[in-house]
Write a structure and sequence with these properties.
The complex is a heterotrimer of chains A (417), B (269) and C (56). Chain A has 417 residues and is mainly α. Helices cover 70% and strands 1% of the residues of chain A. Chain A has 16 helices and 2 strands. Chain A has helices at residues 15-42, 57-68, 70-81, 88-112, 121-124, 131-155, 164-175, 177-200, 218-246, 253-288, 293-297, 307-326, 328-331, 334-361, 377-400, 407-410; strands spanning 212-213, 216-217. Chain A has a two-stranded antiparallel sheet with strand order 1-2. The longest helix of chain A has 36 residues, at 253-288. Chain A is globular. Chain B has a 4-stranded mixed beta sheet with strand order 8-1-12-11. Chain B has a two-stranded antiparallel sheet with strand order 2-3. Helix content of chain B is 16%, strand content 16%. Chain B is α+β, with helices and mostly antiparallel strands and 269 residues long. Chain B contains 6 helices and 12 strands. Chain C is 59% helix and 0% strand. Chains in contact: A-B, A-C. The A-C interface holds A 123-129, 133-134, 137, 141, 144-145, 148, 162-169, 171-173, 175-176, 179-180, 183, 186-187, 190 and C 1-2, 5, 7, 13-14, 17-18, 20-21, 24-25, 27-28, 31-32, 34-36, 38-40, 42-43, 46-50, 52, 55.
């Protein structure tokens, strides 16, 4: 029925099967939309946030998806600026994943603010000293860049491409994509960094606060670095999941290995910097504010924030995947590689979790205790909403657009073109 | 700021914890004065709004050495370093400001769009969010203070040292042909309501004001009190608050800040 | 965001921040405009469509 829209030379499931799949994911999406509407019409009392937990699951989700969406800018930088030409076989997917991540972040932010109708104040009445202002501007601009990078892929749909104007537009956009990619990298550097700065500048919150360089706390640079390291890992992670779901090899191992190798070295250098930062913070920054390392990791209910979380983030999900991805023997093994990128993705998410949630859980006033928080179903549903949306957009893009240039070669169809 | 500069005020408070009985009159006066919303069931204090909150502190010792102390906590009006208070610089929409003329941290509810970054920044939990729209019991709308706008759902609010009273007092002084306010002309609702006289309010820069005489702020050390009985909450963070506390008890003074070598855990309020 | 909003100050912070923003927006805007105008021009010239394959 929709075969005229499907790229030539590749095989796709039947329209019925596809519709059923979209319906299932769509149901989850609708659940999220319902929760979103509740938040809009009834207000943020629908969440389990409170005056001690002004930032919670949503802000974590924002920080996490933006870090993981960093694969788009970094792969783009490698492909268009540093000339790693092989990455052209995965750049489309990196861009698509980035597009989903960034649109999700914007969506969640739009739900998260108490007065969504005033959200434009952040642009209009911008306070240039606020990290959140920098985040809002760069994030929105970079979403524009991702749209510019994603649009040519949409225009390459078999039917759209037949129209001369769109064909020419795609051709021209590809022609100056390096310019867009460079601008994207510039914007990404600042908004990834600003997200790190969000907690790094809070000198009233010793768990998050870091000293730094000029106006930027060390977390500014750490976040950019970790997004460049873990973003590509997420691209590889989702690529592998897509391969499993479609039962096809979509990207050649050489391409995957190259990206994994670069991500591995980025992760290794990042984690060394992170360890140095943690040691300096624990030994100098925090004690100067009257707190020891163990004040941040002990006496909390259920040991939700025990030392285990630091070991998990830096060790199990930091050093381990970095070493795995750097070692050629382990990296070349697809299963080990998948485990490594999965750990790296979890590591980035854990880092963002502690830098949002634990910052507020730690008691700062000596006569207060730890603050607990458990998200409400509305918060969870609105956080799953973008995941469902992402799956639908990936499904549609995979079905109708030439996302994976190597698919045809890797999966020849008998009698096909 | 320069203490000698007569035009620069630094309004602050001195709260004598030895006098505070924990009666809560300051909280009530504050809510009435500033049209602070409340709900029918306001038991969850993490969801309710109270610009002034009284904490109960204990020394954590068994009977008969057990001691308690009440600590009223308004906005600390942090000056930070040169007006860089923790909450002001983080606000993305310029909805809060540090007023260099009075030292008061303002909050503009109509500008706030509810991102709550300032709440994450404030270590004193002074900034609170309107999780609900305010609903006043029938007839109570007529009791609202016309000098303070009510806030809607989805915005952050906090104590502003009854800034509308400052405006009214300066207006009156202007009409009287004066440029300077008398000490008693501008007082916060909580300071006036305290039956024990535990809350003193005035200009910390003015050597004739009681708050200056008692706290003896050391401007060369970020306003640190010279009075050995005085302390500020979380002095070490460098927030440079303008609320000073007095206590004759060492454990109370220690409870105001974190100590790296903490020997005893202070129990939760 | 604009010099006519009342909190605007011509200080280093605003110049660096907003300078960077408008610079990036300018590049994106001009790049996109170039692509669209050139696509219109190319289309009028008869390039693209079913006859224009072969590039990459």
């Amino acid at each position: 029925m929709d075969s005229a829209l499907i790229p030539k030379g590749v095989k796709r499931c039947s329209i019925g099967q596809f519709a059923l799949w979209i319906a299932v994911v769509g149901a989850v999406l609708l659940w999220g939309v319902w929760a979103m509407l509740l938040c809009y019409f009834r207000g943020l009392n629908q969440t389990n946030m409170n005056n001690a937990y002004g930032f919670a699951l949503w802000i974590w989700a924002d920080l996490a998806v933006i870090a993981l969406g960093g694969g788009a800018f970094f792969t783009g930088l490698l492909r268009y600026i540093f000339g790693k030409d092989e990455l052209k076989h995965i750049i489309n997917y990196a861009v698509l994943i980035g597009f989903i991540c960034y649109s999700s972040a914007l969506l969640i932010l739009a739900i998260d603010v108490g007065q969504p109708l005033r959200a434009w104040f952040i642009f209009w009445h911008a306070n240039v000293h606020s990290m959140l202002t920098e985040v809002a501007f760069c994030l929105t601009c970079y979403f524009g860049v991702l749209t510019i990078e994603y649009v040519p892929l949409v225009l390459e749909n078999r039917q759209i491409d037949r129209l001369p104007f769109f064909h020419n537009l795609t051709h021209n956009m590809h022609g100056i994509m390096a310019l867009f990619a460079a601008t994207g990298a510039f914007l990404s550097f600042f908004h990834q960094g600003s997200l790190g700065g969000v907690s790094g500048v809070l000198y009233g919150r010793p768990f998050g606060f870091r000293t730094g360089l000029l106006v930027w706390p060390w977390t500014f640079f750490l976040y950019t670095w970790s997004a460049a390291a873990c973003g590509p890992c997420f691209t590889l992670f989702i690529t592998r999941i897509t391969e499993m779901a479609t039962c096809k090899k979509l990207v050649k191992d050489s391409v995957v290995e190259l990206l994994a190798k670069i991500a591995g070295w980025m992760l290794l250098t990042y984690i060394v910097a992170k360890i140095i930062d943690t040691v300096y913070w624990a030994a100098v920054t925090a004690p100067a504010m009257g707190l020891t390392l163990m004040d941040f990791y002990s006496n909390n209910p259920g040991s939700a924030y025990g030392l285990w979380i630091l070991i998990a983030e830096v060790g199990v999900c930091g050093v381990l995947p970095a070493v795995m991805l750097v070692a050629p023997g382990i990296r070349s093994n697809p299963s080990m590689r998948f485990i490594a990128v999965t750990l790296a993705v979890i590591g980035a998410c854990l880092n963002r979790w502690v830098m949002v949630l634990q910052v507020q859980a730690v008691p700062v006033l000596p006569f207060e205790g730890w603050f607990g928080y458990m998200p409400s179903w509305q918060e969870i549903a609105t956080t799953i909403l973008p995941v469902a949306y992402g799956i639908i957009l990936i499904s549609l893009s995979y079905r109708y657009l030439p996302v994976f240039p190597q698919e045809q070669e890797l999966n020849p169809i008998e009698g096909g073109k | 700021m320069d203490q000698q500069n007569g035009n620069t005020k630094k309004y602050g408070m001195v709260i004598d914890l030895d006098k505070c009985t924990g009666c809560g009159a300051c909280m009530v006066a504050c809510m009435a004065e500033n049209n602070v919303p409340f709900r029918e069931d306001d038991t969850d204090k993490l969801l309710s709004v109270s610009w002034m909150r009284v904490y109960r502190l204990g020394n954590g010792k068994p009977f008969p050495q057990v001691e308690e102390c009440y600590l009223p906590r308004p906005c600390q009006q942090c000056e930070g370093h040169a007006g860089h208070s923790p909450c002001v610089s983080v606000c993305p929409a310029t909805a809060t400001d540090y007023d260099m003329r009075t030292g008061i941290v303002s909050q503009i509810p109509t500008r706030c769009f509810g991102c709550r970054y300032c709440m994450a920044a404030c270590p004193y939990h002074v900034r609170q969010f309107n999780w609900w729209d305010p609903i006043w019991p029938d007839g109570m709308e007529r009791m609202l203070n016309p000098n303070v706008s009510v806030r809607m759902r989805g915005v952050v609010e906090k104590c502003g040292f009854c800034f509308h009273r400052y405006q009214l007092a300066t207006d009156k002084a202007y009409l009287d042909g004066r440029r300077e306010l008398e000490e008693g002309e501008y007082q916060t609702a909580c300071a006036q309501a305290c039956p024990a006289g535990a809350i003193l309010f005035g200009d910390l820069n003015n050597p004739t004001h009681a708050v200056h005489k008692i706290a003896q702020p050391d401007s060369t050390h970020g306003g640190r009190p010279r009075n050995p009985k005085a302390f500020r909450l979380l002095e070490r963070l460098g927030t440079n608050p303008k609320v000073y506390y007095l206590s004759s008890k060492e454990w109370v003074r220690k409870a105001g800040d974190n100590q790296v070598q903490r020997t005893e855990q202070t129990p939760k309020a | 965001m604009f010099p006519f909003s009342f909190e605007w100050v011509w200080d280093m912070g605003h110049m660096v921040f907003m300078g960077g923003l408008w610079y990036a927006l300018g590049i994106l805007g001009m790049g996109l405009t170039f692509c669209i105008i050139k696509a219109v021009y190319d289309t009028v010239q008869g390039k693209g469509g079913d006859h224009g394959h072969g590039h990459h």
